[in-house]
Amino acid sequence: MSASGGSNKKSPFKYSSDIHDELKTDLQKIQINGTCIEESEVEKKLDNLYKWICSTPKNTTYRVNLLKTTTEQVIQHLNNVIAQQYANRLPTITTFPHLSEVIIVHCWDKSIKLELLKHSNEVIVDATCGSAILRGSHVFAPGILGMPHGLNIGDTVSVFADTTGSCKKGLLKTREVENKMFLGNGILKQTRENLFYNDGQIKSGIAIHMTEVISRLPQLNADSVPDGWALLQNLPSILCTLILNPQPGEIILDMCSAPGNKSTHISALMNGEGILVALEKNKSKLEKLKINCDKFSSGNVKIFCYDSTKACDKHMDTECVNINDGPPFKENSFDRILLDSPCSALGQRPQLLNKITVAQLRSYVALQRKLFSAAVQLLKPNGLLVYSTCTITIAENEETFNTKGYIVNGLTKEESEYILRIGPEEDTVGFFIACFTKQIV
Ligand SMILES: C[S@@+](CC[C@H](N)C(=O)[O-])C[C@H]1O[C@@H](n2cnc3c(N)ncnc32)[C@H](O)[C@@H]1O
């Protein structure tokens, strides 16, 4: 094991040179005009990738639920919320001319002065919580690792992330921690006694209300807009559903659906007409999926707890099948299918610390191929399938549907048009979207 992913440069894989080697091998599959790219080019690509995933996107995106409200109304509401919270310091909010349901809240530019002086009261949060803060979240109780004695509710504190994964829960001497990353300042809402007192209860709720953060984004969350009006959703996730292009009256399958961010969007684009079957294997995620469907008035969604790799029964009696009865389904049942696959999530930004092992990274591939194969069987001839992941490896993306291992640069021009890879050129999260139609030969 060595630090910094095999080199001394910036990387979230601080303790695993194995991951660096694995990603290198993955990138070595890239060919340009039939020739593999040079070793130096691979290293350069990896450096860019690491820098990018360690950094924070400079905007927050919302998807507006056009069934309940309008984009203008959500912008007006957000402006009021931000004006109140930040004494009229309004960020720029923009929209896309052709994506009517997308709102982009930009970070404050450098002309706006933020109060980012470090205070003597230091609180340490874990790396996951740190990423969420940088993207505009307040600090929730489970994310806090360390806090000194004597801090009171209402005190101003400086918040740091443990980017080494070495701090123990309940840590007192927060000022002595080395290699912590300063994130910003906030107001304490829960005391140390409350957070770490072991009464058997899981601690919840906002523990620090962030006021200024180094990413310069306003702290916005699901509660910043009225219930069901809009959802915080990364642009690639919104695009994914738009590429699926759901139509009212169709029969559509969302194979990996919880927590329902895309299911609610698909249902809205269907205008609630037709059937959207939402499958999810993990029982503990169903409640959240149901709540989201209710919140977003997704009336045509039929939710089933089911393993989608087993969702197709080739031997099913074709006479007695009703989609509403749930899985398994017969072959050729759906007009469109979204396979938003479980993945290694290496496209998430920012990543302050990532402890994924090579075994974990490799473990997704077999599942992704099984899910893809089930999707192809379940799709009607001429039906449309969208395969997506929020990760960046070739093994989990292009190779899922072509075991020969060709990649974007090796595809024909026509084939490439059906693939969208979102990487370091874009200031959003890393994502992969591939779109297929089923042809019977
Ligand atoms: C990337 S997440 C889906 C996110 C979701 N599409 C959204 O936009 O809100 C993948 C989901 O697939 C679920 N999953 C994993 N294996 C599965 C399987 N074999 N069948 C169905 N769901 C599965 C996971 O529990 C997880 O909730």
From TrEMBL:
Per the record, the GO terms for biological process are: RNA methylation
Q: GO: which molecular function terms?
A: RNA binding; RNA methyltransferase activity
Q: Does the keyword Transmembrane apply?
A: no
PROSITE patterns according to UniProt: PUA (PS50890), SAM_MT_RSMB_NOP (PS51686)
Tell me the residue numbers annotated for binding S-adenosyl-L-methionine: C256, S257, A258, P259, G260, N261, K262, E280, D307, D340
Q: Which InterPro entries match?
A: MeTrfase_RsmB-F_NOP2_cat (IPR049560), MeTrfase_RsmB-F_NOP2_dom (IPR001678), PUA-like_sf (IPR015947), PUA_sf (IPR036974), RCMT (IPR023267), SAM-dependent_MTases_sf (IPR029063)
UniProt domain SAM-dependent MTase RsmB/NOP-type: residue ranges:
155-439
Residue numbers annotated as active site: C390 (nucleophile)
Alphabetized, the UniProt keywords read: Methyltransferase, RNA-binding, S-adenosyl-L-methionine, Transferase
Q: Name one Pfam family in it.
A: Methyltr_RsmB-F
As for family, the record states: Belongs to the class I-like SAM-binding methyltransferase superfamily. RsmB/NOP family.
What is the recorded name of this protein? SAM-dependent MTase RsmB/NOP-type domain-containing protein
Origin species, per record, is: Odynerus spinipes
